[in-house]
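Morning F.,

Quick status update on the modeling queue. The single chain you submitted on Monday has been processed. Sequence for confirmation:
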Amino acid sequence: MVQELVIAIVAGASAGGLYLSAAAKVVKQYERGVVLRLGRLRDDVRGPGFTMVIPGVDRLHKVNMQIVTMPVPAQDGITRDNVTVRVDAVIYFKVVDAASAVVQVEDYRFAVSQMAQTSLRSIIGKSDLDDLLSNREKLNQGLELMIDSPAVGWGVQIDRVEIKDVSLPETMKRSMARQAEADRERRARVINADAEFQASKKLAEAAKQMSAQPAALQLRLLQTVVAVAAEKNSTLVLPFPVELLRFLERAQQPAQQPVQQQQPVQQTELQPQQAARPPQRPAQTPRPAAPAQPERPAQARPERPAEAESQPQPKPQKSQKSQSGRPVPTPAALAATAPARSSRSKPLARH
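Structure tokens below.
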């Protein structure tokens, strides 16, 4: 009898121990327990610590409330300016509502991963290459907003999204390197030109100061000679005074100006004289009076060109015939025979 009682007590104790081991649950500090009694959600979410459930009736689901770091697989896409890129990112999220994470979605981790990949592809297609490379903060905010909108209903909060790497084709990398090099060279030239401009201003001020004291220019020349001679080279420096060059330049200017001014004056003086001179005619001797001749009808003369009329020319004299039939001598013939006649007439005048 006693033996049977002991066996019953031991069996009850073992059954109680099994029940307690099945009913007793421990929830960690970073977890929350969601209880489903006969498949129905209990309103109370079990906090961290020791808790009891009914074995076979209740089912406890533990949900991790820590921030989860999930890498987003690299996605190939084409940007808005038609550049093929490969972008990968990382997402940080945590569960804020354990009941919704258990009930509303089958696997919230997988759901968040797929949503992140889809949103990343969408962001790549809406952005330019320059935005992906330089304006990542704005893209991160847009990507976080796109993932967080559907995740709110799952009891998940997106903490942060970061674009980790952007892979470009090799041709695009070389083009960008050439563009950056050209930009650097342009800025270097602008800086050099600005420095030359500022130096020219200072040199102009220095020249103005040295013009008041010619000795200062000579001292500056001697300093330059000392600087050149200090180095070990075969350069020969012969200082030449600038004042001598200026004197030669001033002496050359007055000699050139009168020559340039006299030439047009002489030309203008010669032109009116040439225009005023009449054409010279050969000297004519007075023609002796010829006997009267009968009037002849006027004959029409052929018209001459304008050039011949503008330039007066000596008219050829036609030989005329007297009434007796003998030709009348022309003035030119008389001028040729005049010396002979005068020589014959001299002895007659003496007698």
